[in-house]
Amino acid sequence: MVAVTFSTDTNDSGGGVDGTIHNNAWKQAMATAINAAFTDWDDYTPTWGNTGTANTLGNGTLAGRYHTVNKRVFFQIEFVWGTTTASGNAAWTFTLPVTAVAATNPEQTIGGATITDVSVGNYCGIVQQFTTTTCVVYNTNAITNGVGFSGSVPMTWVSTDKMSICGSYQIP
Known about the structure:
2 domains; 9-stranded antiparallel sheet; 9 strands; mainly beta; single chain
């Protein structure tokens, strides 16, 4: 990401209070505020759930980060399957970093997902709000369209397969 910078005017005393149209102190404060609004992300640890029996992360990895702007949360989740990771028997869910407003419809899309299958290729998914605290990823492959990702959808997961999720949603 490129940081916002403002050039320095030569007619300012530097104190930022002398009434010049573009005083340096004001411009620096604005640059700092703008950069903070677009670069400060907080880490969080999502929980990997299942609408059926429980999953086991084992030595897989799961990490998340998020950024809040006004009443909107932007989030990213990175999931990597490990050699001791095991899936439950139904669709996967992931916790959101901040409680969302209730979905306006049961299929409210809040993001997208990419899956890297190390043995075959890539898949895409859509991320939908499942509850006010969780999301679910659905397969966009024509064969299993509308089916939540699981240990066998869209493929059988093996070590180093990974999924990247990103999206945004409204908060109260």
